[in-house]
Amino acid sequence: MEPKKKKSKLMWWSVPLIAVLALTFYGCPSQQNLSGSSDAAQKVYVAPGEHDEYYGMFSGGYSGQLPVYGLPSGRHLYTVPVFTQSATNGYGYNEETRPMLMTTHGYVPWDDAHHPEGSQTDGELDGRWVFMNANNTPRIARIDLTNFQTAEIIEIPNSAGNHASSFVTVNTEYVSAATRFSIPMDEDLENMDVPISSYAENFKGTISFIKVGDEGEMSVDFQILVPGFNYDLSHAGKGPSEDWAFFTSYNSEEAHTLLERNASRNDKDFIAAINWRKAADLVADGAGEDIPGEHYRNYMDHDQQLAKSELIETVRVLDPAEHPGIIYYLPTPKSPHGVDVDPTGQYIVAGGKLSSVLPVHSFEKIQQAIENEDYEGEIDGIPVLNYNSIVQAEVENAGIGTLHTEFDGNGYAYTTAFISSEIVKWSLETFEVVDRIDTYYSPGHLMIPGGDTRNPDGKYLVALNKITKDRYLPTGPELFHSAQLIDISGDKMELLLDFPTDGEPHYAQGIRADLIVDNQIRFYELEGNNHPDAVKTESEARVERDGNDVHVYMTSIRSHFTPDNIEGVKVGDNVYFHLTNIEQDWDVPHGFAVMGAQTSELLVMPGETRTLVWKPKKVGVYPFYCTDFCSALHQEMQGYVRVSPEDSDVEISYRTGTEG
Amino acid sequence: MKTKERVLMAVAALLLGLVFMFPIWTIDMDAPQYPEGIGMEISINKIEGKSKNDLQNINGLNHYIGMKEINPDSIPELKIMPWIFAFLIASGLGIAIWGNRTALLIWIILFILLAIAGLVDFYLWSYDYGHNLSEDAAIKVPGMTYQPPIIGTKELLNITASSWPGIGFYISLVSMGLASYAFWSSK
Questions:
Q1: What pTM does this model have?
Q2: Cβ contact A70:A483 at 8 Å
Q3: Which of A308, A415, B34, B47 has its CA 20 to 30 A from that of A543?
Q4: Are A101 and A237 members of one domain?
């Protein structure tokens, strides 16, 4: 069968004009067509005390965190600190969690998080973990959904701009990572001191497969060395294609300056189709080369309740030229962005960012083309398949600036169009557009709960917009991004709700609440707390001097600290407040802050131990207090530390409830 | 006493074995901050929270009003009561074998007296906890005492305390009833 190739009605030169027109018209809310807003209100109304149907895990983008929303209400439930320090609870500030942000570049307190992806079993969300990538300093985090805390962060060596990440294979065997910004690499894939203009000669990329163990522990299993294009997005296959993973790339021009023009020249760039199963089997049989590739793996030791860092020295690398059959290039029009695999695993949809059509590749045809060696060329030993042999259809009128596609499990696909600011619904049977709806404004990703899995819940769709403008009460020049919840249960899409989202959400995951709620930890068992500095009863609380270090082993319970009067600290000391919250009840955190501390507070959950380091610089008596309104006598939950001169002979002493 | 009555009496005595497994009294506390409730279960040999940490959390709340810590180890009755029930079971079985109606009557009266004594004792303990408050208490409401009712519901500041017999108590009632029926039937 010949692929559908109809002539586009839209001329390329008209794109900027339409974009301008679109933004002009869409700027006026009065023109929005809200069919029966009371009906819409009912559909998103979650009564006080009732719970939402889905957890919405939205990436925080440049916040580096994982904000969590309830759907369909759009209520902001929590924000999981992931790649960025969080002064709210001390993540990345306190001694226990600082190791989580360790990298080979040193301590990195921020990142740009793009693509949360839920763990899967049999191609369906299982509610165990969410993975999320850091784009700037390449890393992947694993968030534990029993406590909504970051459990692990692994650094990706030999990479830069980890954008095509962190997408999982059908049974969470692997999580993906790839190089968005290719960099010069020598034989050991070390970054090089070379002229930037030597791009074509020296710059390379890697596509990495991070193995996920039974307990979620991550390790870089292997990297595939690839030409220096910009690897952009990814999705693993499913069903017939489940042994494969797909990575879009742009900049096949290998431009290194003014990419907006220079990387937009070629008619086609590539999707890299990787047989990860075959590559993994090869690696298991000893294929590839171990090269130096220092990277950190930081993980939460659940027994001791503190994060630990380990430096891993090497990484296994496969050169595709030496291992034919592990990677093929699928030519795809004009700097494709998203790559999305339909629930049957048969179709691979590319967001043709600068294309007037939306190309859909057929996995079956790809397999045939590989079998027939139907190649149109080869790049660095990677066969390039013949476009006409693999494309199933080109969806027409799918909007302008198509980026990402999700699926409803009922035979339809939904694609965001950034420039024309809309979501377009099209049929996976006829490859024709059947419905479209405006979004406000310019959607990037979209999310249907389970919409990238084998079994989507085709009820709601969330548009994650990049431009906010007039949607909410203005907050100066800087605005939260805007999300729109759209009902997709009927033939026509219907806009239900508009809600602002923290940071700059890119991708998101919608996970059925019942997969998560039953596994929730309400507090940590004190008897399971094996933190080396924990004190589990008030009678064990104490203060000890060790040279210039003073260790305060402190407890908190409503509504006092033990000890709460401390003397004998001197200017120049490092005072470690090891605070154990000895409450054993749900939702009774205690905070801790001391005047002049050059770090954030501690927020300590029941049964947990956290450490704040304080370096007093001036003589005096310093108050400390509980920062969380824990109880009726919260205001009384305070204490004092006396700081004496460096040469003072005041001995360490401490007490609670008795006169000194 | 015929075989039927003896069997009934044996059952009445053996039933009391179950009292070791179920609480005889429960105190439930409702407060806005505890949407799922918090409570205590009083058994013949122990006092436990309804959920794992309830007792600790009840003590945590009580310290604000200056109530003594409820510490099961400091309540001698919890060590004596199991022996009393063991005695009732053993003597009940003995009477079932012996078949003496007078002895059965004494057993029933003794059981009832012990039950009343138990309730009085429970009242005295709860009176002590509810009235004997520390002078240093953070929260002092003039005239306010915190004795939960023996049976029924009472508002104690923000907490609605409900006190009701537990399964163990009803088992005792059934045992008492069976024994009384055995006594009546053997007339």
A1: 0.91
A2: no
A3: A308
A4: no
